[in-house]
Amino acid sequence: MTRIPSKAEILDWIAAHPTHTSKRDIAKAFGIKGSDRIDLKRILKELEAEGHLEKRKKTYRDPERLPPVSVLQIKAPDGDGDLFARPLEWHGEGVEPVVLVMPRASDPALGEGDRILARLTVVQDADYHYEARLIRRIGTNPRRVIGIFRKGDEGGRIVPIDKSASTEWAVAENATHGARDGELVEAEQAGPKSRLGLPRARVVERLGDPSAPKAVSLIAIHQHGIPDHFPDEVIAEADAAKPMGLKGREDLRDLPLITIDPADARDHDDACYAHADDDPKNPGGHVIWVAIADVAAYVQPGSALDREARKRGNSSYFPDRVVPMLPDRLSGDLCSLHEGVPRACIAVRMQIDVDGNKIAHRFVRGLMRSAASLHYAEVQEAMDGAPTDRTGPFLEPVIKPLYAAYAALVKARAERQPLDLDLPERKIVLDEKGTVVSVNFRDRLDAHKLIEEFMVLANVAAAETLIKKRTPLLFRVHEEPAPEKLEALRETARAAGLSLARGQVLQTRHLNALLNGAAGTDDAELINISTLRSMQQAYYGPENFGHFGLALRNYAHFTSPIRRYADLIVHRALITAHGWGDDGLDSAEIERLEQTATHISETERRSMMAERDTTDRYLAAYLAERVGNEFEGRISGIARFGAFVKLDETGADGLVPVRSIGREFFHFDAEAGTLMGADTGMIIAIGQRVKVRLAQATPVTGGLELELLSIEDKPMPAGGGGGRRSPAGRSVKRKSAKAKAKRSKIKRKVERKRRS
C-alpha cells in the first residue's frame, strides 16, 4: 500500500507548486494510485473543511482571505430582504467572496451604494463566506457621547458624565432605544449640528446602571480625559487611504513570516521568521526577520491623522475595549498584518551567532504577506508536541527555527542579565454582558518570551542604526534607581535576612542576585514588589541615557507603531536615514522632539492610571458578592491612614484603615515604612503575611476595605474597631504629642550647644 502523505506534507507541496495543484497533480507527486486516491480525496476534503485549502474548479489552493476589518459597498437587498456587500479591496484570484451584512437594531439604515467599514467573521456551511458587522459608514463620523439618560415627555435628554462637557443632548422619542430614566447610555449625534437648541442624539447602546460592568471602562476613559472620538478630518484621511503596492519596496511576500499574538488580538503589528544562518563565517548562527507594519506610509507628518495620533500618544487597553491611537481603517485593516493579505512593512534582518549575540543587521522597506496569524498558546502546544491542523504545517519550517533562534538569545540574555522580576500579570475575564467571571494570572510561556526577545533585539537594532547614521530619534530611557529608594530596598532586604551590594556601581545583576536569593521563600513576593518600587519610571527622550532595566546602552521603541507614537517617530527616522521617501522626519518634527517626548510620556502614564482604575473597579465588582469572606494576602504598602493588602487569589489591593486596627494608637514611621502600636509595640510592615476579612467593596470607586484578622498567623487582640485609647484611659495622641514636644526641646538644646 502506498504511503498517504500527511496534511502538513500536502500543504507544503501545494505551497511549493502553486501552478500544479489539481488532485491529479498531487496524486502524481506522491505516487498515489488506484484505490489510495480515495484516501487522498478524503484528506483534501478535510483540509478544505478546516479552511486550509479552497477548491476552485479542479484545483486546490491556499484560501485568499479578506482582512477582519474591511471596506465594503452595500448592494441592493435581495428578494428575502437580506443585505449583501462586496469587498472593495479583494486581492484574490478566484471568485469574489459573498458577504452578508448583519445589522443591529441600533445601526443606521444602509442603502445601495453605501460604503462601510465593517468587522468580518468567517462563516462555514452557508451560501455566503462572511458575516459583517457595521463599524461605521464611510464618509460619516457621528460624534459619540456617554451620559445619563433623563426621560422627558417627548423622548429625553442625555447628561454627559465627562466633567469638561456642560452641554446636554436632546433625544427624540423614536431615538431612545428603550433607555430608562437614570441609565448610562452611549449615543451618537443625530442629524446636522444646529445653532439653536440642544444638539440632537440617538441612543445606540444602553449600558444600564452607571455602576454596571459595561460602564466601568467608559467612565475611566472620560475621567482621565482620554480622547475617544476621532475628528471628521481624521476619519476622512483614514478612509481615503489605499493599500500600498510593491513600488519602492523589497518583495518579502515569499518569506513565511507569521504573527504570534494573544488569542483575542484584533490587530497584528509585528511578524517574525527565523532560519539557520548559511553564512560559513557564522557556524551555528541564526537569521531573524522581524517585520513591523509600515504606519508611516499612511500617517504623514503634519497631517490630521498625525496630529490626532500625537495627541493620543498611544492606544489604551481595557478588559472590554480598546481606545486606539489610529482609526479602525488603519489599526484594524491597512496597518494590521493579517494572514494572507499583502501589507506594507519595515523589516529588519538580524544575524546572531551561536551564543545569541547580534553580529549584523539591515533594515528594508518591504511588502509582506503573513503566512499565518497564530496565538501564543497554540504555538507553544505545537512546540511541546501537540500540533494542530493550523500549526502543524508550520512546525518544522517556521516554529522550530524560531525557538532555535530564541534558545541562542536566551544565552545572550543570561550574560547581559536584565532585571528579572517575577510578578504575575492579572487577566480579567468578562462575559458578553461585561460581568467579571474570573480573575486569572496569565501564563508566561516560552512563546511569549520568544516574541519579547525578538522585539527587544529589533528595538536595539533600530537605535544602533539611527545613532550610527546620526539621525534624531526618541529613545526609551530607564534610569537607575534613586539612592533613597535603593536604601529603602536594602532595609527591606535586611529585614528578610538578605543583602544588596553597597559601595559599587549598581547593575541589574546585583538586583537579580537579591531576587534569586529570595526565590522560593516566603519573602519572594515582597522582594519582587520592593525591587519594582525602587525602579524609576521609564520615559521617552531625545537624549540617550540607556535602559537600566534591560541592561542595554541603546534602546528605542520600533515594534508597535499602530499603538505607540514613539515607534512612529522611530519609523520616520529610519525612513529619513535610509532615504526611502519624503514621509520621514521633517525639520519641524525634529525641533519639537523634546516636547513630543514629554507629551507622550504623560499620555502613557494617563493610560496606565485609567487602566489601573478600571481594573480596580472590575475587581471590586467581582468581590462585592463576597463581602464577609476571609482572604489570605500580604501587606503591600503602609501609609499614615492604614495598611494596603494584596490579596493572593485575585491580586486586588485593599485598605485596612488604621482606625480599625486594635484599641491603641499606631505610630507611622515613614522611613521604615511601618505602623507600630503605642501600647503593644505590635509592628505592621510591608511583606507580612496576613489574613483579612472583606468588610466593604465599592465598584463605583474600585475601593476595597478590609478587616485585619491575623499577622503572620498570630491573631489580632480581641475587641478593636472602636476606641484608640490606652488601657489606662489616657489619650495616646496627647501622650504622643507631649513626647514629640520633649524630643524637639532636647534637639534645640543640642543645636544651641553645638553652635556655641
Plain-language structure description:
Helix 10 crosses helix 14. The strands form 10 sheets. The chain has a 6-stranded antiparallel sheet. Strands 3-4-5-7-6 form a 5-stranded mixed β-barrel. Helices cover 30% and strands 25% of the residues. With 756 residues, it is of the alpha+beta class. The longest helix is centred in the last third of the chain and has 31 residues, at 593-623.
Keywords:
756 residues; alpha+beta; six-stranded antiparallel sheet; disordered C terminus; nuclease; RNA-binding; Ribonuclease R; NA-bd_OB-fold; exonuclease
Structural class: alpha+beta
Average pLDDT, rounded to a whole number, is 85
For the termini, the CA-CA separation is 109 Å
Largest sheet: 6 strands, antiparallel
Low-confidence stretches: 56-62, 719-756
EC number: 3.1.13.1
Function: 3'-5' exoribonuclease that releases 5'-nucleoside monophosphates and is involved in maturation of structured RNAs.
Family: Belongs to the RNR ribonuclease family. RNase R subfamily.
Keywords: Cytoplasm, Exonuclease, Hydrolase, Nuclease, RNA-binding
Question: Summary?
Answer:
Pfam families: CSD2 (PF17876), RNB (PF00773), S1 (PF00575). By secondary structure, the protein is an alpha+beta fold.
SSE arrangement:
Elements: H1 7-16, H2 23-29, H3 36-49, E1 54-56, E2 59-61, E3 69-74, E4 83-87, E5 99-101, E6 115-122, E7 130-137, E8 144-151, E9 156-160, E10 169-171, E11 184-189, E12 200-208, H4 216-223, H5 232-240, E13 250-251, E14 258-261, E15 270-276, E16 286-293, H6 304-312, E17 316-317, E18 322-323, H7 328-334, E19 342-352, E20 358-369, E21 372-375, H8 376-383, H9 392-416, E22 426-430, E23 436-441, H10 446-468, E24 475-477, H11 483-495, H12 508-518, H13 524-534, E25 539-541, H14 565-578, H15 587-591, H16 593-623, E26 630-639, E27 642-647, E28 653-657, E29 666-669, E30 674-677, E31 683-685, E32 689-698, E33 703-711, E34 714-715, H17 732-755
Parallel strand pairs: 5-7, 10-12, 13-20, 14-21
Antiparallel strand pairs: 1-2, 3-4, 3-6, 4-5, 6-7, 8-9, 8-11, 9-10, 11-12, 15-16, 16-19, 17-18, 19-20, 22-23, 24-25, 26-27, 26-32, 27-28, 29-30, 30-31, 32-33, 33-34
Helix pairs in contact: 4-16, 9-10, 10-14, 11-13, 12-13
Catalytic activity: Exonucleolytic cleavage in the 3'- to 5'-direction to yield nucleoside 5'-phosphates
Domain S1 motif: 628-709
Subcellular location: Cytoplasm
